[in-house]
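Deviations from the work plan: none for this task. Representative record:
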Amino acid sequence: MCGIIGYIGSRQAQPILLNCLGRLEYRGYDSCGIAVSEHGINVCKDAIRVEALKKTMPRLNGTAGIGHTRWATHGAPSLINAHPHLDCSGKIAVVHNGIITNYQKLRDQLTGEGHQFVSETDTEVIPHLIEKYYHGNLETAVAAALNDIEGSYAIIVLATDEPKLVAARKDSPIIISLGDRENFIASDVPAILDYSNRVVYLEDGDIGVITTDSIKVSRRGSEVATKVHQISWTVEDAQKAGYEHFMLKEIHEQPKVIRDTLAGWVSGEALEDLATMWADDINALLILACGTSYHAALIGKQMGQELLKIPVRAELASEFNYSTQLLDRTLAIAITQSGETADTLKAMKKLKEVGCQTLAITNVVGSTASRIADRTLYTRAGPEISVAATKSFTAQLMVLYQLMMAHPEIGARKLNSMTKELRQLPNKVQQVLDNEGETAQYAQELSRYENIFYIGRGINFPVALEGALKLKEISYIHGEGYAAGELKHGPFALLGSDTPVIALLAPDDTYEPMLTNIKEVKARGSAIIALTREGDEDIEKIADKVLTVPQVEAIFSPVVNTVALQLLAYYAARERDCPIDFPRNLAKSVTVE
Amino acid sequence: MKQAVILAAGEGQRLRPFTATKPKVMLTIAGKPILQYVVESLARRGIRNIVLVVGYRRQQIFDSVGSGEELGVEITYVTQEKQLGTAHALAQAKAKVDKEFLVLPGDNLIDADTIACLESLTPDAMLVKRVDNPLRYGVVTLAESAVKDITEKPKEAASNIVNTGIYAFTRKIFDFIESELDIPDVLNKMIAQGHQVRARETDSTWLDVAYPWDILSLNSIVLPRIPASLGGIIETGASLKGLVSVGKDTVIRSNCYISGPVVIGTGCEIGPNACILPATSIGNNVVISPFTEIKNSVIGNDVSLGPGCFIQDSVIDRGSIIEGQFTAFSRQAEVKIDDEHHSVSVGAMLGEDCQIGSGVVAQSGVVVGNHSQIQALKIISGRLPDRSLVI
């Protein structure tokens, strides 16, 4: 997975490309490079971050260019494997995001025809294929080359002989953006928000051609009308605003995210809109997701079963794709922050084929997931830059709460009391944030350990998984989330004084069994850190340390508990000097299976 | 002058309970934090390079003004880890400032005109103002247009001219900041060593928030300047008069009577049959139930007011949940802050996240600490500390 950018206009391309690449780094950052065209194509690339490239690269003149920031799939991060890649003549340059599955065959074939390959990447076959088919029209040559290619791609092509950029996509995201006497192509919107907020989305199989003052999109050989979307985010949304890391900034945005999600709820508009998601004959739910979104799905499962009394399955999309059991009269909900998660998209397509109603919950307007699904609910989290998801998770929970509350079976009384609670959530979350100092102290102590267990039951079991995932991905401490009742079936062997256990409690019928589980753990010598509501006196006698969150109904406890665990992971990682916003080996949206 | 340093690190102890979780500059006046008014005034004067010295609870400032892009300015942050004084705070910004720069307090209400007064002066210079009660400020003695001496909070005032805390400096000031912690001490030293510090008197707006009830007076001064605007949904039969600003996604239900100046935030549910009188500000995500009357008050975000409440000259902070029939009326009252007694006309001062039962009566001048819980039908008075439980 990678980020790509293209520029053509009246200004120098180099600084613009580098700036946009900086904004794309969350998609991958093991190497980067740009190509600029002026009487020939000049390429500068290396296995370094964008900032470093900015400092070391020479000035390249030219007002058209392409750029790439890479996350390695085929071929290790290196100067040779970094994009852009060229054809034999050096007249065609290509940047690519995706995976070409038949590249070995194509490479052998092209080598046989005399083409010289320099890198180990799958991408390099593309410029050579275009070279092979080029007879004076770049667009036709790209179309012909793509005919031979199997796999997923978003590409941008630059050629010396034609003052234009050609873009195409299949299963990888790409957008075109319109400026004033300049145009852009990029993997996503935040990349170009510094320059323009007018965007055209490309569909799978589309080929887009941009020049300084025109854009054209073709589908299966004939030109189609383009629809320009106005983006309402500002560039500021994508900046750090005083915080040391995007992650902490995004953690702090959560009260606002909750308030924004609630907007429209009082007037009844949002409620009416959500109620239409529930068709009469739906008698089961299937929630699909990956990573953090999967934890939201698991919480959704608990919500659905408790509030709606219908069977709910939560599945990892990457696993679901290998199961054959499908259901009818089921509403399939796919949760994906980016709307581009490859596994989730594949599962959605599969479900649609068998006639399931599909509902996407995503943070990105116009993303692939929203275009596959029958209906889409957007989370109001705004762009999330930190690789570790925080506010998008909370926003997903908010949408799930509201979706469940809009079910006709819920009843006015329950709806009223839940609405009242929901309105208080922004303030409760703010209080968790206000307690940051104490949480940071706990984190400081935890940062000394190499293994930490997180345990919970019921609706807080997925929260334990999420807490552990946050810790793993940013602090590199091995965090393991476990169902509290399952510890005795094996993991007890791992407990001891060097493995603390974080226990999550909620005021529901899991509270008593949790106390029993905590005592069991304590007997094995592990220190217990309890995360519980204010005024919980029983736990103080048992736990070694108690971190409190404001009192909320058990069904909303995942929200406040998760925020506390996000802070805990953040400060543990900070104590260990980890690169919090860009953890090693991870990228923001996973567009490969 | 192209650059300004805003001092925003302080806590504001005398403003407790409202400053327990937020810095003083984040107190909300007419829907916006005080700091934002200062930044907006600077932007109006074309001063867009702003260094913010932050410290206490700085995350709230990051969350609110951020990079400054939304306000049309560029903000650089520097941190003062311990709040030792204004000169110490300014010294933290040393690496970030140009040859000449303005210094302003972030917790005062300052107009663009006020800033314009200072811009014409050659640094080093300060802005002074005549006030009625000089004893709580730094009293300035002038010789012509030069400062002779600044005396902080004197027992007896030599004049009624006081320091506004708004200065124009050159980098030379840093040479004089040694052990001195506050800017007036540094200036006194400069003057003693023969340097000239110019002064100019302003009659434009400069207002300080020193005590909780100052929030109300500032609110009533600022509200009439906020233009009317209607977002959200106004149901038929609701009556809006004067300057009323309603945020998006807010619903004003039938038969509400709202008389401006009033500012209502986003996502609120007001009424039916609620009465909101001048000069009142209401935050975001607030619920005001039927038959409640609010007059000259400031209501924070996420507050819920039950039916039949009467609230006058009161401040209710973020997230408090108040059941029906709560009464807070305003009479002349003695309020004690740090062993000082003040006689003011004020209703109730309620901290954040309080839970107030039905039928509670708040005596004039009551100050309720954050996270307090008051059971139904209680009469409360005096000063209740944080997390009080009245049963």
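The interface with chain B takes residues 234-236, 239-243, 248-249, 252-253, 256, 259, 262-267, 420, 423-424, 426-428, 430-431, 433-434, 436, 550 of chain A (CB under 8 Å).
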